[in-house]
Structures are given as structure tokens and as C-alpha cells.
Amino acid sequence: MTDDTPAFYGRRGGRRADWWTVLHPPYTVWHLSYAVIGAALAPRLSWAMLAATAAAFFLGVGICAHALDELHGRPLGTAISDATLWTVSVVGLAGAVVIGAIAVPHAGPLLVPGIAVGVVLVLGYNLELFGGRLHTDLGFAAAWGGFPVVIGYVAQRPPLLHLPALGAAAAAVAATALSLAQRRLSTPARLIRRRLAAIDATAVYPDGTSVTLDRAALLAPIEGALRAMSVAVPLVAVALLLAH
Question: What number of helices (H) and strands (E) belong to the chain?
């Protein structure tokens, strides 16, 4: 039987399944982990600021960005109404901005442009504003990979002229590269799952042996890599926290 879910973590069958799919739990945890990694690289860790940073990214990315994405063409095929998705998007983004504003006195003025950039990235990427210039593989990687690391670090109000700042910069580049790899894997996975009803291909080895390649066979290595990465990055974040 063909799996008709829109992602390896997707579900069908009612409101709860729709919301689970829209929130993309493995990917949401994955990208929240980048903010945690940034915070964990600061010389001193404020658990309160870490919690606020994680909450803001959950509202802005996990809820708002994913709801806007579903509004744009219904790629997940859920039955959630447009009005509900718009409401959730607005409330999620507003909540993220409010948390950021409350955190500014504790995190310092550098967080202010960070909040503004975050709003531009969420709206620009998911609504494909500015002629879609942000809606690219690199735009995705920078917005959901490197940016959370930077904000997670800055929110801890560390000294910027300090060796850990170089570590945070390196981590931001690494997160961007990992998110780029995620995008390069998830794009063909989405194509196979959401647009191709069936695949009929045959691979022939040099010795003449042939193997039939179907939809599941093509998805297995791609989604296997995505599953592994969605576990590995959060574990790295946990490891860094435990090191404090």
C-alpha cells in the first residue's frame, strides 16, 4: 500500500493529525536546537533567556512559519481552514515579537535588529515576498540554520570581542551548511511523496543483475538521512547544555 502522507512524519485522519503534520515536529525540534546550540556556546548561560529564546523560535518558526507555508498552496493537504491558519500565524509571530521585546532589557540592544530580521525572514521566506529572493535553498539555510544560532548566542548577552564569539560564528556557518543539506534532501523527498503517484524504474548492474526501483526504494535513503539528522542535531544541543 502506498504511503500517501506528505512527509515521513506526516499523519492522516482528523484535526490532531493535521496539526501534527503542519507543525513538522522533527524539523521544529531540529531548528530550535540551533538556537539552543548558540546559547550553549555563550560563556555564561541564562536558563531563563534560553527558555525565552526557545519559546520565541517555537512561535515564530514552529507555528507561524509552518502555518504560512501550509496557506501557500496547501502542500500538506490538511483540512485546517485558511482563517485558522492565518490566526495561528499572526498570534505566533506576535507572540515571538513580544517575547523578544521583553527580553531586550536582559539581552541588550543587539537583540532589537535580530527581532526585526526574524520577522522579515519569516514573512519574506514563507510568503515569498521580495520576488521570492529569500525563498531559496540558501535563504532557507540561513534563516532556519545560521540565524537561530546567532540569536541564541546574542540573547545570552556575551562579550562579542571574545573567543566564544568565534565559536558561535563557526557554529552558525555549520548550521547553515546542515540546513542546506536538509533542504537538498527534503526537496526531492517532497517531490516524490507529494507529486508522484508511482515510480517504475529498473537499475541494471554491470553483471546484468537488475533491481526494480519503486517510490519507497527512492525515498528510503533520503528520508533515512533526514531522520538521522533530525535526531543528531538535538543531541548535539543537549550535549552542549550538559557541558555547562
Answer: 10, 2
